[in-house]
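FAQ

Q: What does a record look like?
A: Structure on top, sequence underneath. For example:
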């Protein structure tokens, strides 16, 4: 081993004056086989790989994928963590390898909650406020548990025209009840239990076209009633009249039959008295 002077001055190996090698710029000591062994002040010692061989070099700043460590005896270049493409120190990355995303000095395969991956920058970007998962910088996919999702944004309370769906944790349109037109009035029917002979009731209805949501306006009444004059059907009047006539005829026949029986009994009794005298 020999001691190099500055900048490509010849190094003379120990015990031999025939082998001459040149020290690289910045080397304090070097060897013909391994390159720099120590560096000038303020420079960093770095091992370069040349196939299976390693050679020492002295650099003013460590190459990409390494960070500098200073000490009283020697300044060295140390490799960054495996997922880190470049770093400032052991625990602070500045760029990540493909498939990883940078956030606050660390590289993640999957961004933490509330962040979204930016493949172009290989960084985790913060989602919109209240967002737990987002697809784009200003487009949320899933909100925190205490917020409601609507149109890619997260809301503490749903805006006008919307209402919260607690099961889906999102804002849904507020729907009011819709009903159709009234039907025609039905026939006048005698109301059950109504003593008045000619008083009745008519009914009309309408159908629900759209059921309301939980906070929507409820449906109005679907039936209406009004009083009417009950008119008996002609057929019923005829039957009642026929029934009365039949009953009267039956009564007359009964009276006539009774009169005939009395007459016969009287005749028999008179004949019996005449025979006895």
């Amino acid at each position: 081993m020999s001691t190099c002077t500055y900048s490509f001055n010849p190094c003379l190996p120990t015990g031999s004056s025939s082998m001459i090698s040149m020290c690289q710029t910045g080397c304090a000591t070097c060897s013909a086989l391994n390159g720099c062994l120590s560096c000038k002040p303020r420079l960093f010692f770095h091992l370069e790989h040349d196939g299976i061989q390693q050679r020492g070099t002295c650099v003013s700043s460590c190459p990409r994928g390494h960070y500098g460590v200073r000490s009283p005896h020697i300044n060295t270049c140390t490799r960054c963590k495996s997922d880190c493409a470049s770093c400032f120190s052991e625990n602070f990355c500045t760029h990540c390898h493909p498939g990883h995303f940078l956030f606050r000095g660390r590289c993640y395969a999957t961004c933490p909650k509330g962040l979204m991956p930016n493949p172009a920058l290989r960084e985790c970007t913060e989602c919109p406020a209240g967002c737990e998962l987002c697809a784009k910088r200003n487009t949320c996919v899933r909100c925190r548990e205490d917020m409601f999702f609507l149109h890619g944004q997260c809301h503490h309370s749903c805006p006008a025209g919307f209402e919260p769906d607690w099961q889906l944790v999102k804002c849904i349109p507020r729907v009011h009840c819709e009903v159709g037109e009234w039907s025609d009035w039905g026939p006048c029917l005698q109301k059950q239990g109504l003593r008045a002979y000619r008083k009745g009731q008519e009914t009309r209805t309408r159908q629900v076209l759209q059921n309301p949501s939980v906070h929507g306006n409820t449906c109005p009444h679907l039936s209406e009633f009004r009083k009417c004059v009950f008119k008996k059907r002609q057929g019923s009047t005829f039957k009642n009249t026929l029934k009365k006539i039949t009953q009267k005829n039956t009564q007359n026949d009964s009276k006539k039959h009774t009169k005939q029986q009395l007459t016969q009994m009287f005749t028999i009794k008179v004949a019996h008295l005449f025979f006895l005298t």
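Q: Is there anything notable about this one?
A: DSSP finds one helix and 24 strands in the chain.
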